[in-house]
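in:
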């Protein structure tokens, strides 16, 4: 039996998990993946494997069909986001599949908070200037009583809201499917997007990418925000229309951004964001802690083994 793994965080730690597969005489297929494989690369590999642990690759109907017509019996999406996986195709092809939900709430939330702190105190800018020999002292912004527009109130959003509340910030939640406890209703204000965006000092994005959220941060929604707003995205690049975001940065409408994700990854060295000093740029690394990778990898293995009956 062969299992394909295309999730970079798991691949980088594969020696920690290899013994689990060896114990069941499973051969691992471990391609060199920087961020994702292409659809064509997957088609050339998928025909020879029984199971697949998916990263952020284009897990399309075409790929699954080639797999199903050969040996593929089951798949697991490592992590929470599923916008790259055609679950309907799996259902049609009778391929058991699952993601690993509720794995990274605190981890991704802590990165969002780290970005917020860095933007508010300009620590990223200070670091860059000190390395150049410039002893700069820019004035930061206090967080108390500032307003957050938090888009998404799932596992990651809830953790982010919990952390931010400790700074005595006002938190407006945008999530039409939010499950609200009495404590949530006491601590947060729930709004319908884009209502009240004009009051937000920071916009923090933690929601899933789907047809209703794609490019929801665009020229129209940005125009409703207050001048000098800062935007943080730790979810999916496709939630933001990057052309509108760059226009907002160039005009000064947007003071600064912190982006862990982009429409196209890895980010091109020719990207406009690279040239901007008021941007913190990440590498889609929000879930990548030692503990979280172990947790999600073991869960993925367990789910896949159950699907395969081994």
């Amino acid at each position: 039996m062969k299992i394909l793994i295309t999730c970079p965080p798991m691949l980088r730690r594969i020696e920690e998990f290899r013994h689990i597969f060896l114990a069941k005489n499973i051969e691992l297929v471990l391609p060199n993946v920087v961020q994702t494989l292409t659809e064509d690369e997957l088609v050339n590999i998928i025909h020879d494997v029984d199971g697949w642990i998916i990263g952020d690759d284009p897990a399309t109907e075409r790929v699954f069909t080639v797999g199903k017509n050969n040996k593929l019996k089951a798949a697991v999406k490592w992590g929470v986001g599923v916008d790259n996986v055609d679950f309907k195709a799996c259902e049609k092809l009778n391929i058991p599949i699952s993601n690993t939900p509720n794995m990274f709430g605190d981890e991704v939330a802590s990165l969002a908070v780290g970005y917020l702190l860095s933007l508010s105190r300009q620590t990223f800018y200070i670091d860059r200037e000190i390395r150049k020999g410039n002893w700069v002292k820019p004035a930061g912004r206090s967080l108390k009583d500032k307003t957050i527009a938090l888009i998404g109130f799932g596992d990651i959003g809830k953790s982010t809201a919990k952390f931010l509340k400790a700074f005595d910030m006002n938190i407006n939640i945008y999530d039409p499917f939010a499950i609200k406890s009495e404590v949530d209703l006491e601590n947060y204000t729930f709004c319908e997007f884009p209502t009240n965006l004009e009051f937000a000092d920071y916009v923090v994005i933690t929601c899933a990418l789907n047809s209703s959220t794609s490019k929801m941060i665009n020229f129209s929604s940005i125009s409703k925000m207050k001048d000098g707003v800062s935007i943080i995205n730790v979810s999916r690049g496709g939630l933001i229309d990057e052309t509108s975001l760059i226009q907002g940065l160039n005009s000064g409408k947007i003071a600064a951004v912190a982006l862990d994700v982009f429409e196209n990854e890895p980010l091109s060295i020719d990207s406009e964001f690279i040239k901007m000093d008021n941007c913190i740029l990440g590498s889609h690394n929000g879930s990548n802690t030692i503990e979280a990778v172990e947790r999600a990898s073991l869960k993925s293995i367990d789910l896949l083994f159950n699907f395969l009956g081994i």
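note: The chain has a mean pLDDT of 97.
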